[in-house]
Structure formats: structure tokens, C-alpha cells
């Protein structure tokens, strides 16, 4: 949607386009237009807003030079993992800040906590290389920020709610449809690079997933009722990531905390957090100023969880090894 807003404003050649007109042309609400414009502004596009007239790109603003990262796309048919390939290409000096590596299929797609990530053709499997001027410790919540960016971008493709599950799963209609694997190379207080690996189940049948995962995962196609154009989904998600990255580098995690809470599928609910062999059960009291989860235990203690897998709803009653499932 961001691309289409920019194109429309460019076509208007410096004239204002009303929010109402943009909303009608894009088939979305005026609030949705307002939100996307705010993200574009955060990403560095010099869009001007006027309550009575709408939005415009001032003449000669050179708007499309504004992106905070260039977003060159390196496309391959097959690789083991785009995260690994992005690292290799970086080490060979072949890619830089803002470049994206996309594969049609991955043979050894990697998920969080050392798990396997099913990556057949039909999904979006890509890695974005970034070089933020931040201290390594500041980057941790960026994986939650990526989940917010992906969730917000995917909402325009499906009629069911898109939510996040801490720390960075994206649920569509209550089932996992996308995940984020953030990897960082840093020396002392300097980040060399961050690789944000994103996997999105776009046009996949549930049958491609191993049987134990089928009830837990979904795809955009399954929820939208029809296949979606991969390129459009990729551009929308990259636009969202770009806007969120710009805002994160400028203002850090605080502006995203509320957005994460708004999208969170389990805030205020009884959840279980699994970390290796241990499990903690309690009421989710939201994420803190560092992106850690706050859990109110039965005995009244508030604990802060930095890593783990959240299980809630039916998973809590199911017992068994729900904490070991991936997808
Ligand atoms: C998760 O476990 O939820 C994270 C999944 C991340 C998968 C993506 S697909 C593109 C990139 N390459 C990988 O090997 N993994 C990430």
C-alpha cells in the first residue's frame, strides 16, 4: 500500500490528494491511509499533510531518493538458508546495508531456537542485511519490531486478524504464518551487521507442513481463500520494515511497545513460557521497556522473561510437548 500511496502522490506532481480519495482508490479506510503515510514519513519521505487538503509530495522533493536503505534484491532459485547466504555475500563484499536476499526455496531453512523452517516454493523466504549505528545491546527488541512490521503489512492481504506472539511470531487467524530470525555480528560495542531473516507462508497448502504442525500453522492463501502475488507481498513487507527500521533507529523500542501490545494475541491472558526444559506459567502483563515479557506467577511474583516460546489457549490444556513444536 505504501508503494501505491507514493506513486499516487508522485503522479499528483506537487498537488494535494485528499485522504478520502486515496482511501477510495486503494480500497482501504482513511485511518489505514493515515497510518501508512505516518510510516512513510518516519522512513524519510517528505510527505506534507494538511487537514483540509490531504497529502502531497512537495515539488522537487526527490521523494524516491529518500529510502533509508536501498533494497537491492538478490534473487536465487534455491539456497540452504537466505540468512547464511546473506552472511556469505556480505563477507565477500557483494551486498551491503539494505540489500535483500530472496530464495524461491530453502533446503535448510532455519527457525528460532535451532529449529527447522519448512521453506518450499510458494512462500517468501528472505533476509535483509542492515548496519545500524546502534550499540549491540540496543538491537535486541528489533526482532519484535520486525514482527510488528510484518504483521501490520500482512493485514491488508487477509480478512482475519493478524497478530503477534512474543517474541516475534506472526499469527494469521490465530495460527502461525510468519516468523523472524534475527542474527547479529558485533565486536565489542560496534555492530558489524544485523541479518533479519523473514519467512512468510504465502501460497502454501497445509499439507506441506509435517503432520504435527498442521493444526498450528497456516498460510496467507489459506486465510485469504486465493493465492496472492508474492512480489506484492514482498514489496509491502519491505516497505513496512523500512519504515519501522527508520523509526527504530531514530527513537528505539518505546514507540513500538504500544504497537506490539495492540497486535499481541496473548496480552492479559494465562500463558506458558517454555525455555529449554523449563516452563513458567502466569498472566502475561505485557512487554517491558527492553522487549522482555513480564509474567505474573501464581504466587504473585512478577518475572521478566528474555527468551522462550509462548503457549496459550488450547495449547495450555493439551499438555504433552507443545513447547517443542515449531512452524
Ligand atoms: C521462526 O522460527 O519463527 C523464525 C523463522 C525464520 C525463517 C526465515 S526464512 C528466511 C530466513 N532464512 C532462514 O534460514 N530463516 C529465515
How do the helices and strands line up, and which of them pair or pack?
Elements: H1 2-11, H2 19-26, H3 30-42, E1 48-50, E2 54-56, E3 73-79, H4 82-91, E4 100-106, E5 124-130, H5 136-139, H6 142-154, E6 162-165, E7 169-172, E8 175-187, E9 190-200, H7 220-224, H8 230-251, H9 254-263, E10 270-275, E11 278-287, E12 293-297, E13 302-305, E14 309-312, H10 314-318
Parallel strand pairs: 3-4
Antiparallel strand pairs: 1-2, 4-5, 5-9, 6-7, 7-8, 8-9, 10-11, 10-14, 11-12, 12-13
Helix pairs in contact: 2-3, 3-8, 6-8, 6-9
The structure holds biotin (BTN).
What CATH architecture of the largest domain would you give? 2-Layer Sandwich
Bound molecules: biotin
Q: Proportion of β residues? A: 25-35%
Uncertain residue ranges: 62-68, 317-322
Helix fraction, binned, reads: 25-40%
CATH superfamily grouping of the largest domain: Bira Bifunctional Protein, Domain 2
Secondary-structure-derived class:
alpha+beta
The count of DSSP E runs of length 2 or more, i.e. the number of strands, is 14
Q: Span from first to last CA?
A: 28 Å
Strand order of the largest sheet: 3-4-5-9-8-7-6
Radius of gyration: 20 Å
CATH C-level class of the largest domain: Alpha Beta
Mean pLDDT: 89
The CATH topology assignment of the largest domain is BirA Bifunctional Protein, domain 2
Number of domains: 3
Shape: globular
Amino acid at each position: 500500500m505504501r508503494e501505491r500511496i507514493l506513486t499516487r502522490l508522485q503522479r499528483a506532481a506537487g498537488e494535494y490528494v485528499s485522504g478520502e480519495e486515496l482511501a477510495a482508490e486503494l480500497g482501504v479506510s482513511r485511518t489505514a491511509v493515515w497510518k501508512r503515510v505516518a510510516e512513510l514519513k518516519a522512513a524519510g519521505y517528505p510527505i506534507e499533510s494538511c487537514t483540509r487538503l490531504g497529502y502531497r509530495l512537495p515539488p522537487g522533493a526527490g521523494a524516491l531518493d529518500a529510502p533509508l536503505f536501498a533494497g537491492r534484491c538478490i534473487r536465487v532459485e534455491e539456497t540452504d538458508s537466505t540468512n547464511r547466504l546473506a552472511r556469505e555475500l556480505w563477507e565477500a563484499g557483494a551486498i551491503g546495508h539494505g540489500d535483500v536476499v530472496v530464495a524461491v526455496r530453502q533446503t535448510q531453512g532455519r527457525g528460532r531456537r535451532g529449529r527447522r523452517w519448512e521453506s518450499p516454493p510458494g512462500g517468501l523466504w528472505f533476509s535483509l542485511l542492515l548496519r545500524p549505528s546502534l550499540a549491540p545491546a540496543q538491537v535486541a527488541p528489533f526482532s519484535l519490531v520486525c514482527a510488528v512490521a510484518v504483521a501490520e503489512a500482512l493485514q491488508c492481504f487477509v480478512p482475519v486478524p493478524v497478530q503477534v506472539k512474543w517474541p516475534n511470531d506472526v499469527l494469521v487467524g490465530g495460527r502461525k504464518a510468519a516468523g523472524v530470525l534475527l542474527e547479529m555480528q558485533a565486536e565489542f560495542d560496534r555492530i558489524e551487521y544485523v541479518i533479519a531473516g523473514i519467512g512468510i507462508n504465502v501460497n502454501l497448502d497445509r499439507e506441506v507442513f509435517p503432520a504435527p504442525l498442521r493444526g498450528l500453522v497456516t498460510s496467507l492463501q489459506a486465510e485469504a481463500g486465493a493465492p496472492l502475488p508474492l512480489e506484492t507481498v514482498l514489496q509491502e513487507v519491505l516497505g513496512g520494515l523500512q519504515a519501522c527500521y527508520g523509526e527504530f533507529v531514530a527513537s528505539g523500542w518505546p514507540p513500538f511497545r504500544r504497537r506490539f501490545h495492540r497486535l499481541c494475541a496473548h496480552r492479559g491472558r494465562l500463558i506458558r513460557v517454555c525455555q529449554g526444559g523449563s516452563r513458567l506459567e502466569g498472566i502475561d502483563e505485557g512487554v517491558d521497556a527492553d522487549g522482555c515479557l513480564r509474567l505474573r506467577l501464581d504466587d504473585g511474583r512478577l518475572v521478566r522473561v528474555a527468551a522462550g516460546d509462548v503457549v496459550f489457549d488450547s495449547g495450555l490444556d493439551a499438555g504433552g510437548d507443545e513447547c517443542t513444536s515449531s512452524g
